[in-house]
Specification:
With 484 residues, the protein is mainly alpha-helical. The protein contains 18 helices and no strands.
């Protein structure tokens, strides 16, 4: 109303509401079923595939040893990183969208089903053997109730990842769906339509999350088992049996490429990918791209994590702040992260500021939620101790609050940094920059250089693995008391 910001950049609520009256029935209702249909197929296929894979990993120790290393390597690669390669293989049709969705959904379901089978209480198995339960009754009355909490958690995470992946792939390569509407509205600079799409995406995500939470509360109504002591895994650093299948597949791939059974333009041999990686580092281009992406990720993560940590401390420690801001942040968190890209580019332009803003938003919410949860779960005895000792606020924060919330805080930092790395790749896809792994992969995809795309995927996976390893080591070092 006062002209502090351009109406074109920040349309008023009245303008958005007026646009919605014509935009929703004419455009949105035509594109929304397309996205929902893709999501339904992807969720169904991914959940079934995840249950089968997770059951295979959990029930067969031999299969676990053979397949888990390969599965772990694939899990380290963000779903977004596969898009340029799959665009070369599958084009930009429905096959691309559904493949991305099924991959995004399969991973969390498989991981949680496998974990649930591994955590099945031995006493339940012993009781089933004593009662001589038939296999059908054993599965229905023992296994399924024990796995249901893990399954529902996996499905909730799967929906979140699937929803984000759907919006991302529709933004990048689609002529239908909500993502396409976002891109079209942004290109025409009709930000009132962009706001409507963002609101609808947030409402759908919020309703789905609440619906899954309601199903979880309705179906999983028994108390959780008491948690045991934390033990560090004693697995071998290198299990030869676990890498047999991976090495075998690489050899078959190499032979097939050498014999001409595979088109090298789309399926370059592993040796060719390795040569591309080596040449890229020797000539310095990959080093520049990798360094640019890592520095970009660290800057965005620092901004997002600092903001998320401060907001989490305030909302978890002060009731009035929690009541004021938590509903607002809950609404924003329901919006798939890539739905913010059209608005970010309109607000910050197409430069480095827009990329850093997107990465900061991607890492903000995991740190916020984890810090707030840590403050809520802080033992009351620590607060009482601080009152008895009359600690100043800074000493209270340093010696009592921060050590008390470290477990939850590190969980948030680990998730936040992984989200920041995925956000870096996405920012470089959609907001092209001169340097960066994502920008290099998109240029390679346009030039049909599959070897460079695969080299970029390998670099993304390696950085993700290093990030996870370093944060875990830092967590163990700062919380040695927890593992004693």
């Amino acid at each position: 109303m006062h002209g502090w910001m351009s109406e074109q950049i920040l349309p008023s609520p009245a303008t958005v509401l007026g646009t919605a009256q014509a935009f929703i029935p004419q455009d949105l209702l035509d594109q929304l079923p397309v996205s929902l249909w893709r999501l339904a197929i992807g969720l169904s296929g991914g959940i079934v595939t995840g249950i089968l894979l997770g059951s295979l990993f959990g029930l067969s120790h031999r299969t676990n040893r053979l397949l888990m290393p390969l599965f772990t390597v694939l899990v380290q690669i963000p779903t977004l990183a596969w898009i340029p390669l799959l665009m070369l293989w599958l084009g930009i049709g429905e096959a691309l969208k559904l493949t991305i969705l099924i991959k995004a959904v399969t991973v969390p379901v498989a991981v949680y089903i496998s974990a649930g089978i591994g955590e099945l209480p031995p006493k339940l198995r012993e009781m089933a053997n004593v009662l001589r339960l038939p296999a059908r009754v054993y599965l229905w009355r023992v296994v399924l109730p024990a796995l249901l909490p893990y399954l529902m958690t996996g499905i909730r995470l799967a929906f979140s990842q699937g929803w984000v992946s759907l919006i991302a792939v529709e933004l990048l390569a689609s002529s239908e769906g909500l993502g396409y509407l976002l891109v079209e509205s942004r290109q025409l600079f009709m930000l009132d339509q962009v706001y409507i799409c963002v609101i609808v995406i947030g409402l759908l995500g919020f309703v789905a999350e609440k619906g899954l939470q309601w199903l979880t509360d309705r179906w999983v109504h028994w108390p959780s088992p008491v948690a045991g002591a934390i033990t560090l895994p004693s697995a071998k650093l290198f299990d030869l049996h676990g890498w047999l299948l991976t090495c075998g597949l690489l050899m078959v791939w190499q032979v097939a490429s050498g014999e001409g059974w595979l088109n090298s333009a789309f399926f370059p041999a592993p040796s060719q990918v390795a040569e591309t990686l080596a040449a890229g580092f020797i000539h310095g281009q990959f080093s520049l791209d990798l360094t640019a992406s890592i520095l970009r990720m660290l800057q965005g993560f620092a901004i997002g994590a600092a903001a998320g940590g401060l907001c989490g401390l305030a909302s978890g420690g002060l009731r009035w702040v929690d009541r004021l801001v938590t509903p607002f942040f809950s609404g924003l968190r329901s919006v798939a992260i890539f739905a913010w890209l059209p608005l970010i580019t309109a607000w910050f332009g197409l430069g480095e500021m827009a990329r850093l803003a997107f990465i900061a938003i991607a890492s903000f919410f995991p740190v916020l939620l984890a810090t707030r949860q840590g403050m809520i779960l802080l033992p009351p005895v620590l607060l009482e101790t601080s009152k008895v000792l009359r600690l100043p606020p800074l000493s209270k924060l340093r010696y009592l609050i921060l050590p008390g919330i470290l477990p939850e805080l590190f969980t948030g930092l680990r998730l936040g940094m992984m989200h920041a790395w995925v956000g870096t790749t996405g920012a470089e896809y959609f907001i092209s920059s001169g340097e960066g792994i994502g920008s290099m992969m998109m240029r390679a995809q346009q030039l049909m250089a599959a070897d460079r795309v695969m080299a970029g995927i390998a670099l993304i996976a390696a950085v993700a693995a290093v990030i996870s390893f370093l944060i875990r080591r830092l967590e163990q070092r700062l919380m040695r008391w927890r593992y004693q």
